[in-house]
From TrEMBL:
Domain FAD-binding PCMH-type: start-end pairs: 38-219
Keywords in alphabetical order: FAD, Flavoprotein
InterPro entries: FAD-bd_oxidored_4_C, FAD-bd_PCMH, FAD-bd_PCMH-like_sf, FAD-bd_PCMH_sub1, FAD-bd_PCMH_sub2, FAD-linked_Oxase-like_C, FAD-oxidored/transferase_4, Oxid_FAD_bind_N
An example Gene Ontology molecular-function term: FAD binding
Pfam families xref list: FAD-oxidase_C (PF02913), FAD_binding_4 (PF01565)
Official protein name in the record: D-2-hydroxyacid dehydrogenase
Biological process, per Gene Ontology: respiratory electron transport chain
Keyword Nucleotide-binding set for record: no
Cofactor section: FAD
Protein family per UniProt: Belongs to the FAD-binding oxidoreductase/transferase type 4 family.
Length: 470
């Protein structure tokens, strides 16, 4: 790959230190996304350690005409943090911006820098007797800046909203190197446009998030976790509504998975197990919380007993210990890992209105079977908020490359149904480079024009994460 000329290399080294300007093989880990679908080239990977250093690097790039690809933990799934083969670009890693600046337990906020690992932020909140209600499968490696820049969701979106809903304020380095300090801890502020919303979910195309104020919640005093077996997604959605009504909205997580997922997990993942005695076609992992000891479990026991009497579910079990709860959630992660052992999967991260989830799954299954007989649809996800990870595992015996060659074809089939149900082709993973070409087809002409106008207004030279989203 091309490298920075010595004079430019020295300029960046003077800002961040020579050890934090990586070139050649040292930069390689920053140029490929985790699934290997996207690789790129860059002049260097630069790792500033403070907001001032980020600003100086960005200002230098602006003067030299160098494009910037911001990168956090590089755990994204749509290629948004990996450079393209752009002639002059750098990767700007925020991993060294890793300070927790402040935790205000009384005001229930925390101020953290972009490179703080999500799990570490959650642990720090927990130590302050507060909850940061954002949990993802990648929380041990994803960073706060990346989470906010992709507007990530996760298991608790049903109760607390996605990353966008948790951000009270941001600190952002703009494309010209200026710093916008919007680190407000206010819950109410009606003085003009809510500028932070421009950068949440923008995938680094408008600026670089360097710090954020996050809203915290009281820690639950009671957590009840259950695994439920039922006949179909219709019963699952009806169960969600019934339990929310019965518990006063105490359900915070509601994860749907098919029998096929349990079969894959128990066949291929060490430690995977049958979660309940009944062998049903669909399963739900659910969780309720309360600020009152024993209240969540009581509500869940009563609600599930009624659902069993009404024939809405076939079987259910509640976790009797923290270890059993951990094992239940292990199964949720195991079904993701298990797919790779059965061959290639064509993946979708879609959302539809919650009430439309069963219709989507039925219609998508039929459409996939019609165009790809023998394919194995694998629908699972955060059904409580309408987010379905609709993955399609290859037919047995087919060459993986032959199956992956049908990605665009099957995307069109699935996305057409999503559009008919007023859904979205990206619920929590973002657009990146992977879904970029599909974006104009799912946005109205007016909406897409507004998106482009915002991009041109804030980044007129198009240097921020070129090739992502647009």
């Amino acid at each position: 790959m091309a490298e920075l000329p010595i004079i430019e290399l020295d300029e960046f080294a003077a800002i961040v230190g020579a050890n934090n300007v990586l070139t050649a093989s040292d930069a390689a880990p920053y140029l490929q996304e985790q699934r290997g679908r996207f690789t790129g080239e860059a002049l260097a990977a630069i790792r500033p350690g403070t907001t001032d250093e980020v600003a100086a690097v960005v200002a230098t790039c602006a003067r030299l005409g160098i494009s910037i690809v911001p990168q956090g933990g590089n755990t994204g799934l749509v290629g948004g943090s990996v450079p393209q083969h752009t002639p002059r670009s750098i990767v700007l890693s925020t991993r060294r911006l890793d300070r927790i600046r402040n935790i205000d337990a009384l005001g229930s906020t925390m101020t953290v820098e972009a490179g703080v690992i999500l799990q570490r932020a959650r642990e720090a909140a927990d130590q302050a007797d507060r909850l940061l209600p954002l949990t993802l499968g990648a929380e041990g490696s994803c960073t706060i800046g990346g989470v906010l820049s992709t507007n990530a969701g996760g298991h608790l979106t049903l109760a607390y909203g996605n990353a966008r809903a948790l951000a009270l304020g941001l600190e952002v380095v703009l494309p010209d190197g200026r710093v916008w300090n919007g680190l407000s801890r206010l819950r109410k502020d009606n003085t003009g446009y809510d500028l932070k919303q421009l950068f949440l979910g923008a995938e680094g195309t408008l600026g670089i998030v360097t710090a954020a104020v996050l809203a915290l919640q009281p820690k639950p005093r009671d957590v009840a976790t259950g695994f439920v077996g039922l006949r179909d997604p219709d019963a699952a959605v009806a169960l969600l509504a019934a339990l929310q009504d019965a518990s006063g909205g105490a359900i915070v997580a509601f994860e749907l998975m098919p029998r096929l997922a349990i079969d894959f997990a128990t066949a291929h993942v060490a430690g995977a197990f049958e979660p309940i005695s009944a062998r049903t076609q669909w399963y739900v992992l659910l969780e309720a919380t309360s600020g009152v000891a024993g209240a969540a479990r009581t509500a869940l026991e009563q609600g599930l007993a009624r659902a069993l009497e009404d024939g809405l579910i076939d079987d259910a079990v509640l976790a009797e210990s923290g270890e059993q709860r951990r094992r239940f959630w292990f199964m949720r992660e195991a079904i993701v890992e298990a797919q790779k052992f059965e061959g290639a999967s064509i993946k979708h991260d879609i959302s539809v209105p919650v009430a439309s989830v069963p219709d989507f799954i039925r219609r998508a299954d039929l459409a996939v079977e019609a165009v790809a007989p023998g394919a194995r649809p694998y629908a699972f996800g955060h059904v409580g908020d309408g987010n379905v990870h609709y993955n399609i595992t290859q037919p047995p015996g087919l060459a993986p490359a032959a199956w992956m060659a049908r990605w665009d074809e099957l995307n069109r089939v699935v996305h057409a149904i999503v559009a008919e149900l007023d859904g979205s082709i990206s619920a929590e993973h973002g657009i990146g480079r992977f879904k970029r070409d599909a974006l104009p087809g799912v946005k109205s002409t007016v909406e897409f024009d507004l998106l482009q106008r915002v991009k041109r207004a804030l980044d007129p030279d198009g240097r921020m994460n070129p090739g992502a989203m647009f």
